[in-house]
Each structure stands twice: as C-alpha cells, then as structure tokens.
Write a structure and sequence with these properties.
Layout: E1 6-9, E2 13-16, H1 24-31, E3 36-41, H2 48-56, E4 63-68, H3 74-87, E5 91-96, H4 98-110, E6 136-140, E7 152-156, E8 163-167, E9 175-178, H5 188-207, H6 213-241, H7 248-268, H8 275-287, H9 291-306, H10 311-321, H11 329-342, H12 358-365, H13 380-392
Parallel strand pairs: 2-9, 3-4, 3-5, 5-6, 6-9
Antiparallel strand pairs: 1-2, 7-8
Helix pairs in contact: 3-4, 5-6, 5-7, 5-9, 6-7, 6-10, 8-9, 8-12, 9-11, 9-13, 10-11, 12-13
Length: 393
Amino acid sequence: MASDISTYNFPTKIRFGPGSCHELTTELAALGIQRPLIVTDRDVAKLPWFTTIEDSLRDMAAVTFSGVWGNPVVSQVTTGVAVYQDHNADGIVAVGGGAPMDVAKAIALMAHHPGHLFDYEDGNSTRPIDQPIPPIVAIPSTAGTGSEVGRSAVISDDETHAKKIVFDPQLLPKVVLADPELLLGLPAKITAATGMDALTHLIEAFLAKGTNPLCDGIALEGIHLVAHHLKDCVTFAQKQAAGEEIDPAAHLAARAGMLNASMMGAISFQKGLGVTHSCAHALSTLCDTHHGLANGIMLPAAMRFNLEAEPEKFLRMARVVDPSAENGQALIDWIVVLSDAIGIPSCLSALGISTATVSELVSIAIDDGCHPCNPRPVTEADFYAIYQDAFAA
C-alpha cells in the first residue's frame, strides 16, 4: 500500500516499500521517458511479477531486452545497445540483480558513445564520456550488489573473462523502486550468495584505507541489518521451498532489511573495497564463480589476513553483531557461523576448484583494482597464502 512506501535520497530518489514497483509509469512520465527499454536477465523475464511490470507499460512504446545471464559480458551489452537504438528508446528500466543493472548502465553509456565499451574503462579510458546518457529507473530483485544505487558497471571480456569497471556519475539511476515483495520468491542459495556479497561490501568499505566517516557510518548500520535479517531470509526461503508455513510479515520485513543493507553496501564502498574482492574477481574470471558466492567463501580468509592491520575497526564491527564481543576475532567467528548457517561452502574445494589454479588466480588477483584500498598491503605471496587458507578452511 502507498502508506507503506517511503522516500529517501542518497542522492538517487529511492521509493522503498511493498508495491513501490507499481509506481513505474508515474516515475517514467516524470522523467519524460516515452519509449523505455526494459533490461533484465532471462530468468527474471520468466517470473509472473515481471510480466506484470511489462503489462503496466502496455500504453507506452516499451520493449524488453532479456539477453543477460551469468557474469555479464561485452557481447550482451552490444546486443542490448542494438535493441535500444533499433527501438529509438529514450530511457532504460533495469530490472533484476547486479548483472542486468550493470548491463543496463553499460547500454546507457554506449547508446550515444562511439567505440568499444572498454574504451571507457575507469582509470584507463581512451575516450571521454561526453555524450548524453539516457536516464535509468532501477527495480532490484536481489539484495547483493546494490548496483541500483551505484555509479559503475562491471562487465567482463567475452574471451578472457577479465572484469572491467566503467564509471561515471551519470550512470547512477535517476530513481530506484525498491520493492521487497519482489524478493520473496528468491531461492535460498541465491539469497545466501547475494547476501554475502552485500556483507562483503559493507565490511570492506569500513576497513578501506582513507577517510570517509559518512561511508563508515552507513557500513556499520548495514552490517547490523545483515546480522539481523540474512539468516532469516535464507530460512524463510528454505521453508517456502519445502512447502512449510512461514510468517509473511516477518519474511517481508527480513527481505526489506536486506534490501536496505544491499543499497548501503553499494553506497559505502565508494570509499573503496579490498582483498576479498580481488580474490573473488579472479575466481569469477578464471572459474566463472558467482561473484557473491566467491566473496562469501573468501571473506573469512581475507579477514584473517586483515585482522592485525585494524584490530580496533574489527572490534567495532564485532560489537555491531555481538555487543559483548571482546576482540575483532569475534567478527570473523561470526562470519564463519553465519556462512555455515546459510549454506555457504567453507572452502574453495567444495566448488570443485583445484589447488592447481592458485598460481593463475594470484596472477589475476594481483592486477585487480580493489586490493590497493585494503588496510594491509597485499603482496603476491600474501595472495598465495590467502587462497591456500580458503582451500584449507
């Protein structure tokens, strides 16, 4: 109901609450969008609520591009740009998790810019971002990347699977319709993996080098929300799958908590990320591991590496999840217990990944752009040790 929907801006306008997705036509009209391209992935496109969103735009000249799956690659963006241009679209509705969100941003960038997407890679751009970028309205269906409130898109090379980041403030969606009802049907495994992605963003942002007390405060509150809601979300999903009765109000509250935590993670990591993400990016590149799952498995080993560098910050985070915590190790212990409770594998071997891949993983991770913000410098030998720890866990 409308009375359950609230509005806040940071700086994106966020309409948060059950039923907020039904405000799509109103928000598109306010932005002057008449010919939207809906960008989603092939799984979301099959869901009944997505059909409802499409039907709500039947009086507009809307078209859907659902050619997104897995870790998004350049060819998906290229195909989406062609659909955008053929349709003569004037805006984008991004619906789904991190993959369609990132592809939607990349389509928006390339709709009016020449050349190859990677010509605009953050920090290595060879072309200026100086053409109009069409407005985006984002409707998230997972609580993980928080890409709906982010200014960047992470897209992989089709051949090498190397991840590249495209960044520009104009890529930030104009409006987010954050409707927790859309998350109620998420399977337990996706709920767990995306939830650990959000948690990793929050923890790494808080630990990242540099000064940004605004991000630090947001990160701590986000960790608090994960501690209170992620396990419940996974439990509710498991019970749903088993046909057991659940409390709909409690389930909705838990999903709402994680949806906020996810956005807070994406907002806070503008401060920076760290070694966990560098390790996870290498796993996605080499082994095509789901990003959130890779973060979840690597997080304990990475935090064991980081503990000595920031014991006071670890203690502050530990006391968010357990007010009686006496040291920072309590945070790592909590992460391990939470991971086990929600079904995140305890080691890389559980994914069928061989220790023979460590050298390749290290060579990719050392070149990743996230670990320079890590609170403790990470050498090649350190990466070896962190991966070995993750295999032995």
